[in-house]
Design brief:
Elements (H helix, E strand, L loop, with lengths): L1 H7 L7 H23 L24 H32 L4 H4 L3 H25 L11 H24 L5 E6 L4 E3 L2
Helix pairs in contact: 2-3, 2-5, 5-6
Amino acid sequence: MATTARAVTEVPHSLRLPGIILGVGLGGFVDGILLHQLLQWHHMLTSTNHDRIGVKYYSPHTVSGLEMNTLWDGIFHAVCWIAVLLGLAVLYGRVTHNRRAVWGSRVLWGWILVGWGLFNLAEGILDHQILGIHHVHGGPHQGWWDTAFLAFGAMLAAGGYLIQRGGRPFGPHVLRGAQGTAEGA
């Protein structure tokens, strides 16, 4: 019985990695679909005329420039797709029972939000700040847009962490009651 009480209070590690990987991929898809395609605020290389690494400028206002930006947007989406597939594979490998219950788990969705937030922070710092290859919304207020993107990423990561902490532990190492059955979510 003491083992059961201790196990129930353990941190749920089994969903952390797949949740974060899924969040990175899904967060990248939100960025690419919303900001690159629907709003058309930027593409992967739309600020290379002011970048910090010397990448050739591909104006999104010319056919050849838009073709190159679209190619790099496609590469970006392919990486997001691979992250989602990898996250699903890791999740499938770690969850061997009651797989349906996992999708309603606060732990999984919290870690997915953490992954999305980490995507925003890494992409915002690397592409917007360090490399300068694009900005959230170019123009006179691009610094504010980039800062808001980073703040949103930090809020997603912090909120996701808090959400997953409020979830029940998950995994085959967590026992429920004296029967010794594994908990589903």
